[in-house]
Specification:
2 strands, 3 helices, mainly alpha
Length: 94
């Protein structure tokens, strides 16, 4: 099994080879890899794969893993009905 077959980001099905290629194409941070591959952007928001991506970036760039800037984290966003904020009606007249 080589890097082409190893899935690093299970949520977005991003392989190790895709991450390696992103680093070779100029990504020097986890956020750079995210922009190129969508790794760390699935339902887990990088909680499963973020550290693995950091290690790959460090390995491919010849840096210490501690020197790789971790990903920017954002809260997951899901649409909800406006009534969830305290009203029982969704769009009724006032």
């Amino acid at each position: 099994m080589d890097g082409q077959d190893i899935i690093i980001c299970r949520c977005r099905e991003v392989t190790e080879e895709e991450i390696v290629q992103a680093v070779r194409d100029g990504a020097s941070t986890v956020d750079g890899v995210k922009r190129r591959t969508k790794a760390c952007m699935g339902l887990c928001q990088g909680k499963t794969c973020g550290r693995l991506v950091e290690r790959i970036v460090a390995r491919e760039s010849g840096r210490n893993p501690a020197d790789v800037v971790p990903q920017t984290s954002r809260m997951p966003v899901r649409p909800i009905k406006i009534g969830s904020f305290g009203g029982s009606d969704d769009g009724g007249a006032i």
